[in-house]
Model the fold of this input.
Amino acid sequence: MKCTLKFMTGLLTLSTACVSSAAQEATDTIKVIEKANKTIVTRSGNTTKIVADIGDTVNSGQYYIYEIEVSRLDGDRETELKDPWDMRIPFFNPRNPETESGSRHTIKRKVTALKHIYWGWRFNYHDKQHVKNSFETGIRHMVGVTWNRGRKTPSFSIGAGFGFMRLNAQDGYVYEKLSDCITFDAMKSEIKIDKSHLDIWRLHLPVMMSIPLGRAGNFCFGGVANFNTYASAVTQICYGDVRKKTKYKSLQQNLLTADLYASISIGGVGIYATWEPTSLFNKPYGPQLKSWSIGIDMFCF
Done:
């Protein structure tokens, strides 16, 4: 009985010592160094190394070295690796409501596609001459990159797309080309005009900011650079039994024009408006046409 009692007493003593040792190990990461000459902190990957010079005139060359490796936990916003595409945008850094310190969420970058599919009507002004109001169609953001801090936060995007614009001539007039200039010619009443239009193919480079409106709404605004890569004019007329079709290429349109853009949508379907303050042609190569447009915009969240 006495041997059993001694054994139990020894076992309890050993257990207490182990618990005490574990408690000490839990606080082993705290080290107080007084009067250090200098401290050097280096970081390589997830490893942080601290070197403290604690030598004096008597004990020269003494250092305290502490090294620890930290692994990132899934879902921990404060320890996420920095994205090399990270962008800091004014007024685009909301406070984190989960902390009192107001730390910011990490900006997320993702590749997006098939946004701002549009069809609209262009209203011409400024030296439109004999050009009718025309239509346009295309996709402004076929593929691009979007930065945001979450699904319900403002986002900034840069993309690329393409579009098509057709400019019909007014009734009784047709497009013609004289040297490098596109002009208009009035047709006689006995000549029937089947069609006469000017087509512009363009590449879009949109830079936009999108702001969520409630659960399903979205407001978007920005600028769109248009590279007018190809232009041609087609005229087809009939007189009697004769039909004549003429196509004019190598037009001298301005390569670069720009639009100011805004749209509002609910559930991914909305309306847009643009204003193009730059002219499509310079004198004497064609009408110094400018325009604005409205139409339907398909916005994918």
Notes: The chain has one helix and 14 strands. The CA atoms of residues 122 and 293 lie 4 Å apart. The chain has two domains: 32-81, 109-298. The first strand starts at residue 38 and ends at 44.
